[in-house]
Specification:
By secondary structure, the protein is α/β, with parallel strands linked by helices. The protein has 5 helices and 8 strands. Strand 7 and strand 8 form a beta hairpin.
């Protein structure tokens, strides 16, 4: 399976708390909900198509709990008609990279608590399909460090949040990216699709 990461970021690279004020207050974050005012019908259509492409999902622990609370075991529940995101999340396998999650409440969820790299490589070795990672910043950074990402979808919102967890830290491994697709939505959100292409070239 191809491993694809799907990440919503502000112009300054923040990915924390995009969905709501109280979604993620870790580290004293107080500016949650910055993405929703810019998430329009075009964005919803695009994301629905992305989710429908997935054959399985891989989450970090925190994002898994947020998604389960919204789309699975929580207040929204699993009965959301033909919503493509809900259908995808509730009918396809879900994997969580976690050493502490022992009893996932969301149906068809498997916790990867041992050798996560080996488990991900085993999933990727399946002959076809797409394994998607939504959110899950720490996991995405780890997957990049271990060269397990095949494609990265970035939805960049025209806002500077000014605080919060960023997709990539101030220092870390470098990587060159090849642009596969790019488009802009009417809200000003831009969508770029990249594929890792080795190390960057530096001027002498």
């Amino acid at each position: 399976m191809k491993l694809t990461t799907v990440t919503h970021v502000s112009v300054d690279g923040v990915m924390q708390g995009l969905g709501g004020r109280d979604e993620d207050r870790e580290g004293g974050f107080e500016r949650g909900g910055w993405a929703l005012p810019l998430f329009d019908e075009d964005g919803e259509t695009f994301l629905g198509q992305v989710f429908q492409r997935a054959d399985a999902f891989l989450f970090g622990r925190r994002t898994y709990e947020i998604f389960a609370g919204s789309w699975g075991t929580g207040s929204w529940g699993t009965d959301q008609g033909d919503n493509p995101i809900s259908v995808a999340l509730n009918t396809r396998p879900k994997y969580v990279a976690s050493t502490t999650l022992t009893d996932p409440g969301w149906a068809d969820t498997t916790a990867l608590s041992g050798d996560v790299a080996a488990a991900v490589r085993e999933l990727k070795a399946k002959p076809a399909g797409e394994l998607q990672v939504h959110g899950s910043g720490a996991l995405v950074r780890w997957l990049f460090d271990n060269r397990l990402v095949d494609e990265m979808i970035l939805l960049t919102y025209p806002v500077v949040v000014g605080q919060g967890t960023r997709l990539f830290p101030a220092s870390g491994p470098d990587a060159a990216l090849s642009l596969v697709d790019s488009r802009a939505l009417s809200s000003g959100v831009t969508i770029q699709v990249y594929r890792p292409s080795g190390r960057p070239r530096y001027a002498s």
